[in-house]
Write a structure and sequence with these properties.
The protein has twelve helices and no strands. It is mostly helical and 234 residues long. The structure holds iron/sulfur cluster. The site of iron/sulfur cluster has 15 residues, from α9 and α12.
């Protein structure tokens, strides 16, 4: 635990909101505690094949898994293959996913991704990071999720807004770029833990280390977290 209250930075970046000390030496202890706390950390998007997982993950940006599951319940009955999305009327697809937010860009990306999947991969979702990130709307975060959950291939760590915020507050990274945060976390984690780190940090971010008001007083890693003094002191 740091002795002095860290200086507040003028930066608007969440990760460098305060000058949070480097805390990577405590990673193993932090990880053990979080792993024990969130033994039930499982992905909550519903899907039954790689294409459905890809679409659900693209849709999940800026939305909640509960909302996405409501939308995909009907969506997956209507669009069953890459050909269905590729040939979809764009206005109709937009209407079908409207409630997920950013529906225009999501519909455009899903349709274009389906067309590329047909053109380059015979209608099957590709199984490598290099190929997946060529698809519109698919970055490393989505690709990591699809590789791990649909194919059992652990390539890296999916970094979303919760992973970004929590790992920054814990002093495990000073980066704000998700690719660099992923590299930082991968340099600390054991290979067998790569798959569960993302989901565990997401659960912690949703339940305890919330964006606006982190619940440090009930946090299992508060004794090891350099940010606790900032928020508990507020
Ligand atoms: S102590 Fe507070 S800031 Fe640190 S991880 Fe826990 S909830 Fe987040």
């Amino acid at each position: 635990m740091p002795e002095k209250k860290p200086r507040k930075s003028t930066s608007k970046e969440v990760l460098i909101e305060y000058d949070i000390p480097d805390n990577r030496h405590n990673f193993d202890r932090i990880w053990d505690l979080l792993k024990e706390e969130y033994t039930d950390a499982k992905p909550s998007l519903n899907y039954s094949n790689p294409l459905e997982l890809l679409v659900a993950t693209v849709l999940s940006a800026q939305s909640t898994d509960v909302q996405i599951n409501k939308v995909t319940e009907n969506l997956f009955k209507k669009y069953r293959t890459a050909w269905d999305y590729a040939s979809a009327d764009i206005r109709e697809l937009e209407a079908d996913i409207y409630s997920t937010g950013f529906y225009k860009s999501k519909a455009k990306n899903i349709k274009a991704a389906a067309q590329l999947i047909i053109k380059n991969y015979g209608g099957e979702v590709p199984q490598t990071m290099e190929e997946l990130v060529t698809l519109p709307g698919v970055g490393r975060k989505t690709a990591n999720i699809v590789l791990a959950r649909a194919f059992g291939i652990i390539e890296g760590i999916a970094v979303d807004t919760h992973v970004k915020r929590v790992s920054g507050r814990l002093g495990l990274t000073r980066n704000s770029d998700p690719v660099k945060i992923e590299q930082d976390l991968m340099s600390l984690a054991r290979k067998e833990d790569l798959d569960s780190i993302s989901m565990t940090l997401i659960h912690h971010g949703r339940k305890v280390c919330q964006a606006r008001k982190p619940r440090c007083s009930i946090c299992v890693v508060k004794e090891l977290c350099p940010s606790s003094i900032i928020f508990i002191g507020e």
